[in-house]
Amino acid sequence: MAQKLAFRHLLAIQYRILRRSPFRRTSLCALQAGSPLVRSLLASLTLLTVAVAAPVAAAQKIQISVDVSKPGAKIDRNLFGQFAEHLGHGVYEGIWVGPDSKIPNTRGIRNDVVAALKAIKVPNVRWPGGCFADEYHWRKGIGPQRTVTLNPNWGGVIEPNTFGTTEFMDFLDQIGAEAYLSVNVGSGTPQEASEWLEYLTTAQPTTLAKERDANGHPAPYKVAFLGIGNESWDCGGNMTPDYYLSQLKIYSRFVRNFNPAQQDKQQMLKIAVGPGGGEPRWTEWTEAVMKAYQSHTWSWDMHGLSMHSYTVVKWPPSFASVGFGETEYAQILKSTLEMNDLVEKHSAIMDKYDPEKKVALVVDEWGGWYAPLPGSHPGFLAQQNSLRDAVLAALNLNIFARHADRVRMANIAQMINVLQAMILTDKDKMVLTPTYYAYKMYVPFQDATFAPVSFDAGTYTHGDITLPRVDAIAAKDKAGKLWLAITNVDPNQSAEIELTLAGINAKSAAGETLSAPRVDSVNTFDAPNAVAPKPISAKAQDGKLLLELAPKSVTVVAVKQ
Ligand code: AHR
């Protein structure tokens, strides 16, 4: 709670340290008109200014306390989920190059991408869309003969359907992730979706199971999550809440998972379409769906409510993904922090109808959405990924972790070559983005138990924007090790952190920190390591751990006892 309060006050202005500075008071008193000291003081004014600035910066220590005696919710590993839509080069070229490609691959799936994704322990991948899902017909993407169609949502390009169900499940198997299938409610039928699940999951020798066998997979697949529609209030069919609810009930009832291993504990979780913002239109949607859930009968159920929220500032997306300055850095981070209010607004509605928090809030599309890269196809949503995006990712992951009792799944958009990607590819080349590294550093938080953190964040101000200067979360992993993630939002000043760990005899802390010279520093195919984590360690002093965090940095450390 203390930590929550601290977060609520993040925007409170704190000038205390500056006001108290003796250097500042001295300099103002000395500058009286006619004073014989004035000339000599003026001569040394530049030096004095430097002297004033340095002690002020050094004085801005941030005290962070962690109380491990009051564990919070489990930070579900599914908060670190990914989203791969048939969009631009997200699937084709990003994942799939085909078995005949010169790019090293396993059954058509790029080996370099698989290795990189394994390292960040991707828990689940949402597929095949997005808007694409509501026009996807699974039968066109199975078997030896694929049907060539179009992708009207994303550039009207050819959709070869060479990456279909078998390839997706193979990809998941290669990276060790679970399936989050988004079924077609917009232009499909309950029967089509139900047959897809029978094809995927039945162990009995039905005609569809035999077809799966003939396509190379005799055993039933596991489908962990089922999304029933996508943005049904917009690209998914512009439905009213009532119309959507009628569809939800039918799909929930008839789209069954037959896998014998998923009839009890590993039950497939059904995720309903939820809000896309904070305006009344969205709160009314959440109200309607959750109210229906409260009085649902045995014949239908839902386990999650999806929420989509991109950091875009205004539509159409116009912020550059590279080649920007501090103003755009501050504007985007201010906008991304609105995720906190959005989560709390919809959680409060969910609490009314589901106080036991049985239904998860699933933020299955989020991330920075910027202007398309110059020269790229505008329908392909190609953008660069900078240090700003790593900071943005950390701030959002922290928000999700703080609300881990309700937010139990999230999927950043999108995994490769699209929007806020982990990975960028160009033919045989691959580069890992700053966002990728943030995800890699956060791996220890997967399924760890939240530990309350209290701190006074201080402020970072640029123009008329004031943001919390730092943000932090802590959690204990299954082995009992305590981890801290601390973000220094301030792009100009390092942050000196004093860590107090109640009930822990901390000897040191060590981990990795991610920063770079500029807010828009990026990794390119020519300079792939411009933004990469470096080792960092804390010193122990007087029962505290001292850490110095670089400006605009994301840091994750483990505490050694
Ligand atoms: O991620 C890109 C698109 O954004 C998705 O297809 C859609 O669901 C959302 O509007």
Question: Overview of this structure, please?
Answer:
29% of the residues lie in helices and 24% in strands. The chain is an alpha/beta fold. Strands 16-20-21-26-23-24-25-22-1-17 form a 10-stranded mixed sheet. Helix 8 runs parallel beside helix 10, helix 12 runs parallel beside helix 14 and helix 14 runs parallel beside helix 15. The two termini are 26 Å apart. The N terminus is likely disordered. Bound molecules: alpha-L-arabinofuranose. The site of alpha-L-arabinofuranose (AHR) has 11 residues, from loops.
| Terminal residue distance | 26 Å
| Integer average pLDDT | 90
**Shape from CA axes?**
globular
Q: Output the structural class.
A: alpha/beta
**Hetero groups:** alpha-L-arabinofuranose
Spans where pLDDT lies below 50 across 5 or more residues? 1-59
Main-sheet strand order equals: 16-20-21-26-23-24-25-22-1-17
Please tally the helical runs, counting DSSP H or I stretches of 4 or more residues: 15
Rg from Cα: 25 Å
Oligomer: single chain
